[in-house]
Amino acid sequence: MPGGCAETTDATGNGTVMYAIGVAAGVLTSAVQSLGLVLQRKTHILNASRPESERVPVFRSRTWLVGLALFILSQAIGSVVAMAALPVLVLAPLGANTIMFNALFSMSLLGEPFSPADAAGSMAVAVGSVMITIFGFVPEPKLLLSDIQANASTSIFMVWASLQLAALVALFVASLAMRFKQANDMKGASNLRLALIYVIIAGMLSAQSFLVGKLIVELAKTSLLDSENQFHYGGTYAIYGSMGVYAVLNIGAMNEGMRFYDMSLLVPASFSTFVLFSTANSLIFFQEWSLLPVQTWFVLITSLALILFGTFPFDHHGIFALFTMMSKLSLSSTFVAQGS
């Protein structure tokens, strides 16, 4: 990794304490974030159950505002502490606990089921999280703004960022086209597809926000702990500004998705997107793909496989509905082709 590599964090002494604090903060952040999302979803459900004339904007609901406040609090405080202590390769998969907390809160607050398959998925997610937490530690170099600029200008990252931007634009255009064609009923197959588009967008934006948040925390650490002030540069404030933009867009996309389908599908789908893109962002931006030893690659791939596999039981109803929808669309296309 270019520049700023003289100092690295380690997992001994004070580093072990900070690492443990980071893990605890990551788990607590997942719980608070899940509670906030469930409260927001509850507001959408209650609002949709009212007659059209009695519905009000969700931002006027006290429950929705509490949920939003918890979500923002978890990101502003818990995530900052966790980001300061943990590398992205550990912190992103550790967020899999969000899936378990979401299932528990959805069961208790929304009355959604928690099946034996969900319990098995929870175990898989837990094992994967423990593996990456114990064996996936990667030393982190000190970051300066010049290091960030150098990493962002590498050809491989520029190509990766361009592909993500193109995908986001394509998904957004697709969502606009779908909304133009359909009515906003809450459980149709079209709404499932639209909800999936929104939560994939939210997952991708969350991954970008996560990377930017990590960079902000590292710049603050360098400025405060190493007496190398990075706040003299306009580029630092530009990074802060992009963090706010990503956060607002992420919240907006997730709330749009929650209008159209159950959180039992949306959170696992969004989280799976987030983990995959966050991991890729870390490997490419920090150039870790060329630095990781074989055993770390093995732990990373195995834990990610367990975590992503563990999310499937939580959205099996949504997956069944998605397959049903795709089958109907395929049959419809066949009939249209034959008729023409």
Automatic annotation (TrEMBL):
Membrane association type: Multi-pass membrane protein
GO molecular function: magnesium ion transmembrane transporter activity
Organism: Porphyridium purpureum
Name of this chain's protein: NIPA-like protein 2
Any one Pfam family match given in the protein's UniProt record, by short name: Mg_trans_NIPA
Subcellular location: Membrane
GO CC terms: membrane
InterPro entries (UniProt xref): EmrE-like (IPR037185), Mg_trans_NIPA (IPR008521)
Keyword list, A-Z: Membrane, Transmembrane, Transmembrane helix
Transmembrane regions listed in the UniProt entry: 17-39, 59-78, 84-105, 117-137, 157-180, 192-211, 231-253, 265-285, 297-323
Record carries keyword ATP-binding: no
